[in-house]
Design goal:
With 326 residues, the chain is of the alpha/beta class. It has eleven helices and 13 strands. The strands form three sheets. It has a seven-stranded parallel sheet, sandwiched between helices. The longest helix has 21 residues.
C-alpha cells in the first residue's frame, strides 16, 4: 500500500511512519521543515516539501496513492483564525487538491479530535451517534472540517477522534509529567475531571486498521482505551511512573484559573509567545468530563487496546528521559 501522510513529524505521524515502514508500505509525506525531511528521505520516504498552503496550487500534481491520512493540525494556536485556517480551511484545500488528481484514493482518513464532542454530561461515555457540542475554537474548526468532508467527499472518508493520547515524545502532555515530577498537579476546584486516554501504540494500530477498511461508506470512530481516570488519580499514577510515592493535586478555584488565563492571553498578545492557558484551555480544564466509547471501532474493525494506562505512563516517562526532557 502507498500512503500520503500530512503531519508526519508529529507524535502520531512519527509513530505511524515507523509502523507503516516496518510493515513494508510506501509513504509520501508532506513536510514543512526541511531539517525534518532529511531523516524521512534517508528511510525511503518520498517527501513533498512545503506547508499546507501547497495544496491550494491548482497545478500541483500529487503521486498516486492508495490512502491519504491527514494528521496535520494545530492544538494551541495564537488566535481563533489560526485554528480555523489550519484545522478546517487546510482540510478543504487538501480534499479539493486530491479531487483534482487523475487518481482517486481508496480511503481518506482525517485525524479529527474528541474535542468535537464537547464535555460529556454526567461522566457517561459518548458514542459516535450523539450530537457534537464543541466548546472551544479547536473543536469547532475540527467539526467544521468533518461536516465539509461528509457533505462533499466523493470517495470514502474515515473521521477518527482520538482522546488524550499518551506516548514517548508527546509535547502536549509533557507539562503534566514535569509537574508530577516536582510533586504536584492541579485541577479546577469543584470538579475532578474524568478523562479517557489512549496509548500511542494502540492509536497507531487503530489507524492502520482504518486505512485497510473496505467499503464505500464514510465512517466515524472514537479511539479510546478501556479505562476512565480522574485528574487527581492521573497525577498520582504519573507520579508512580516517575518513582514518586506522593503527588499532591491542588484544586484551584475557577475564578483564579479564569484570571490567570486572561493574564496569559494579554502577555501572549504583547510578547508573541504561544499561550497554553488561553480561553480554550480554561474551558477544557473546567469541564466535568471528556469520556468516550470506542465500541464501534472494536465491533467493526476488531480493534482492542493492548496497553493499560500504567504501562502507557511508564513508556512515556522512559521516552521523555531518553530524549533528555526531564
Amino acid at each position: 500500500m502507498k500512503v500520503l501522510i500530512t503531519g508526519i513529524t508529529g507524535l502520531i505521524g512519527s509513530h505511524l511512519c515507523d509502523r507503516l515502514l516496518d510493515d513494508g508500505h510506501q509513504i509520501v509525506a508532506q513536510v514543512r521543515r526541511p531539517d525534518k525531511a532529511r531523516w524521512l528521505e534517508e528511510r525511503g520516504v518520498e517527501v513533498l516539501r512545503g506547508d499546507l498552503s501547497m495544496f491550494r496550487d491548482p497545478d500541483l500534481v500529487l503521486p498516486a496513492v492508495d490512502c491519504v491520512i491527514h494528521l496535520a493540525g494545530v492544538v494551541h494556536a495564537h488566535n481563533e483564525q489560526e485554528y480555523e485556517d489550519v484545522n478546517f480551511v487546510a482540510v478543504a484545500d487538501l480534499y479539493r487538491c486530491i479531487e483534482r488528481q487523475e487518481w482517486t484514493p481508496r480511503r481518506f482518513l482525517f485525524a479529527s479530535s474528541a474535542a468535537v464532542a464537547g464535555p460529556c454530561p454526567g461522566g457517561r461515555p459518548v458514542t459516535e451517534g450523539e450530537p457534537c457540542r464543541p466548546i472551544d475554537p479547536y473543536g469547532i474548526a475540527k467539526l467544521r472540517a468533518e461536516h465539509f468532508l461528509l457533505q462533499n467527499a466523493t470517495f470514502p472518508v474515515t473521521l477518527f477522534r482520538p482522546v488524550l493520547t499518551l506516548g514517548p515524545g508527546d509535547e502536549a502532555t509533557l507539562a503534566l509529567y514535569r509537574m508530577a515530577r516536582r510533586g504536584f498537579g492541579f485541577r479546577a476546584a469543584g470538579v475532578d475531571q474524568l478523562l479517557s486516554t489512549v496509548d500511542i501504540d494502540d492509536l497507531i494500530s487503530a489507524i492502520v486498521l482504518m486505512s485497510h477498511e473496505d467499503g464505500s461508506g464514510h465512517q466515524t470512530y472514537y479511539v479510546a482505551g478501556d479505562e476512565i481516570v480522574a485528574t487527581t488519580a492521573l497525577f498520582t499514577r504519573i507520579g508512580k511512573a516517575l518513582g514518586r510515592t506522593r503527588v499532591r493535586t491542588i484544586a484551584i478555584p475557577r475564578s483564579i484559573l479564569w484570571l490567570a488565563s486572561r493574564v496569559m492571553m494579554l502577555l501572549s498578545a504583547w510578547f508573541g509567545f504561544r499561550n497554553q492557558l488561553d480561553d480554550k484551555q480554561f474551558k477544557l480544564i473546567t469541564a466535568p468530563a471528556f469520556v468516550f466509547d470506542a465500541s464501534r471501532l472494536r465491533q467493526r474493525l476488531g480493534w482492542t487496546p493492548a496497553v493499560d494506562l500504567d504501562t502507557s505512563l511508564r513508556k512515556a516517562v522512559a521516552g521523555y528521559r531518553q530524549r533528555g526532557q526531564f
